[in-house]
Design brief:
two-stranded antiparallel sheet, 7 strands, 33% helix, globular
Length: 133
């Protein structure tokens, strides 16, 4: 019997793949203090609404030229989650109050749904569709 000494690699989820893609692009574009919910990266700090104590953890944060950026990564599964509206509203409010930028990064096929939801929530966000692998 032959036993492998290598652990089989677990297939990356869509969310993990998109987070890795965002990190790579941010590094190429010379962003600083990149934090991510990703192996070997320091996790981003929670974004907290002080009046209610409500908080969410962005998937990625970074800075460039002194401006803070928050990235919410959306897949079809996370887009349908009950907390999506609350997360986006909190990240958008934080960005507006702190002269930061709020990005929604998403997989192909979600652009129309995301734009519709943003209009309904009256939230401003920069949209970034993941390039196909």
């Amino acid at each position: 019997m032959i036993t492998s000494l290598f652990k089989p690699k677990r297939a990356k989820s869509t969310r993990e793949r998109i987070i890795g893609y965002v990190i790579q692009v941010l590094q190429e574009k010379e962003h600083e203090d990149i934090r991510a919910v990703f192996p070997d990266f320091e996790h981003p700090q929670r974004v907290v609404r002080e009046s209610t104590g409500e908080w969410y953890l962005p998937e990625v944060t970074a800075s460039k030229l002194g401006q803070f950026r928050i990235f919410a990564v959306e897949t079809p599964e996370t887009f349908r989650a009950d907390t999506t509206d609350l997360r986006w509203r909190l990240f958008s409010d934080f960005a507006r109050q702190n002269n930061a930028l709020f990005y929604i990064v998403f997989s192909a096929g979600l652009v129309l749904q995301i734009k519709e939801k943003l209009r309904g929530l009256q939230i401003d966000a920069r949209l970034w569709q993941e390039s196909a692998p």
